[in-house]
């Protein structure tokens, strides 16, 4: 699930560079903190590439128009708590959720449970026994291999540790938890292999 999918038929000059498209998308969504984002495309051989900002777009494409590209997080910030814009935090959160689900960010059991609970809190808000049946976590596909033991731990954390957390709190906690792992080389690389630090 892409954060934003961009389908373009280029009528611009053949020398239009990648940065033009990045800026165009960021401006369209009023995204001010642009540095963390880029545009990715898949070539006919199914290889993923980042659109290079300083090269003409048409010269980078090997497929026929129209070109389908994805607007994605290119790297996560070193100090996520310094992110100022709510939209930036939200887009980073969506990408983290995607990377965790596809197994591109790996972490130990206890940290995976906390990360999962933050995601559930961001999606559902506080635990409510009248609204959340015993197996409510089963509706969330959070990890590629989601065991019953992990689901029970996520429920425990969601129920007992994250009450009254807002969306912003859980987005920040999710970023901070992932940052701790990748900086310590516990989680491995993200799908883009350009992630030097995660939130």
Rg (CA only): 19 Å
Q: How far is it from the N-terminal to the C-terminal residue, by CA?
A: 20 Å
Count of discrete domains: 2
- CATH class type of the largest domain: Mainly Alpha
Largest beta sheet: strand ordering: 1-4-2-3
Number of DSSP-assigned strands: 4
Shape by Cα distribution: elongated
- The percentage helix is 25-40%
Q: Uncertain runs with pLDDT below 50, 5 residues or more?
A: 1-6, 178-199
| Main beta-sheet annotation | 4 strands, antiparallel
How many helical stretches?
Answer: 6
User: Based on the structure given, which CATH architecture of the largest domain is correct?
Assistant: Up-down Bundle
Order of helices and strands: EHEEHEHHHH
Report the sheet-strand fraction. 5-15%
